[in-house]
Amino acid sequence: MNSAPSQTVTDSPGYKVGASYFIVWFVSMAFALASAFAADNTLIVITPHWEGIKREYERAFSNWHRQHFGTPVTIDWRDVGGTSDLLRYVDSRFAANPNGGDLDVAWGGGIDPYFELQKKRFLRRHDPPAETLARIPAEVGGVPMFDPAHEWFGTAVSTFGICANKRVIERMKLPPVRHWSDLCRPELLGWVGGGDLRKTGSIHMSFELILQAYGWERGWQVITRICANTRNFHGTAPTTVKEASLGNVAYAMAIDFYALMQVGREGPENMAYIQPPEVIAMNPDCVGIFRGARHRQLAERFVNYLLSDEGQSLWMIPRGRPGGPRDFNIERMCVVPALYQKLRGLTVVPVNPFELPIAFRYDPKKGGDRWQIVNDLFGACIIDVHQELVAAWRAMIARGQWDDPGAVAELSRLPLNEDDVIKLSAGKWKDPLMRGRKSIEWQVWARDKFRRIAATAQ
Fold first, then answer.
1. Structural contact between residues 226 and 188, judged by C-beta atoms closer than 8 angstroms
2. Which of 3, 141, 170, 278 is deepest in the core (most CB within 10 A)?
């Protein structure tokens, strides 16, 4: 008689069911651990920076973190638009959650937004290595390069000027430009490119610098006529510069690195970056850690990397060279003066900003405090009534009044003075209902003013 085959433990139904459960449990745990690891090594950064900067700095920081701490890093970039959009988004996150939700770091947008974030107590202190900060000047021309309380730090510096298309200027026989006030000339009607400062921080900074360098009243006289010559107002700073590169305008308001990118792409025989000498001021592009950052240690390491020689050199070294970017040209001026000498002959950055003559002392606190109200005033009295402004300007040009002091003063007159702006920005302007109501009043007031000027000049 044949005996029945013996059954092993592994053949039993109970064992097979248990093994199946174990495999499912093991895979689930492995997946959960992998997800947790990925989450712990993902930094959430909100920024208005363009794609090239984000890609190059994520790659470089991840490599640096792997070398120093043994693990790579992923950055979850939150791109909500320009600097003003960033501030609105952060406000909404903190309104919904006292710790700002899942945001770890804010990076980019200049310096003024960080005064606003700090004033609202959205940022937390971080102390980079002492030797790191010792390499960075505390201030340049009155502008701090980092916060004395260590809540924000400059990671690059920028200047603001004019991007010029040499071919268009020559072909159309347009006048040369050296100063901001040169953009007020009547021959440039329709040949100037601008941006909506309510959406782009770099355009906002250009106008704020003009206001502080020329003074409030004369500054608005310059700004109003520049805007009367402006073809249109774009929502992003790169688009404004591309308008000049494409030949749609001859001159465009620009932050230095966007203009220099176009000069590098089209050639210095075709494009130029003009730095008006009366408005030279260093503006640091800052970084700060949010007070409720969930990945605080990773955020601190990111800030330390940005301020390190490796992080600073990435701005300065050409694409494809050791220590430089891999896929994109991201030429910008670093905040460490010693690197300009160290990288001389290698860097593509054409000037050491710390050797430039500073024409005036920019007041970043004033600029930060009135950021919102200047945006709203400009929007209501310039951009939203641009058609009426241009009509009034055309009529003044036809009458030969483009540089008449009285006519220019009336064209640029505002419904409130600088003292009013300071008082409102310190209190009532935080009320969104009041802001909306006053913006509508200003828009109606400005439209009526420009229509009256156009009718009078005929």
1. no
2. 141
Name the amino acid, one letter, at 15: Y
- Do residues 242 and 150 lie in contact, with contact meaning Cβ atoms separated by under 8 Å? no
**Residue 284 CA from chain centroid, whole number:** 10
Distance CA 70, CA 65 (A): 7
DSSP 8-state code for residue 73: -
Q: Which of 299, 400, 371 is nearest to 86 (CA)?
A: 371
Q: Which residue has the tokens 């909506």?
A: 196
In angstroms, the CA 160 to CA 143 distance is: 14
Least confident piece of the model among 204-208, 347-351, 384-388, 426-430: 347-351
Global pTM? 0.81
Q: Are residues 293 and 246 in the same domain?
A: no
Alpha-carbon distance of 199 to 29, in angstroms, equals 45
Q: Total domain count for the chain?
A: 3
Residues of the domain holding 230: 160-281+363-457
Model confidence at 178: pLDDT above 50? yes
Same domain, residue pair 60 and 145: yes
Same structural domain for residues 266 and 404?
yes
Question: What is the CA 44 to chain-centroid distance, rounded?
Answer: 18
Domain shared by 379 and 248, yes or no: yes
Indicate whether 199 and 211 sit together in one domain. Answer: yes
The total number of residues shown for the chain amounts to 458
Domain identity same for 396 and 255: yes
User: What was the pLDDT predicted at 230?
Assistant: 98
